[in-house]
Amino acid sequence: MELQTMNMNVEEVSNWLHIPPSTIYSLCRLGEIPCNKIGKQWRFERRHLETWLIQKTLEICVPLKVNDPSL
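The structure corresponding to this sequence follows.
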């Protein structure tokens, strides 16, 4: 696997997630998104972003209660 295919920059992540670059920078500064800073640039591994996105999605999902009589 080539290194170029694994790494993404802020613009690529912004386009992929459909959120503004300013939000990506904020998430990086707050440590809310998996990233690495190399010099002055933030870098992202797509596989780590995919895992992060799945985890964030699962956090907001409300699990169904199996014994809920209203179901």
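The CA atoms of residues 6 and 45 lie 5 Å apart.
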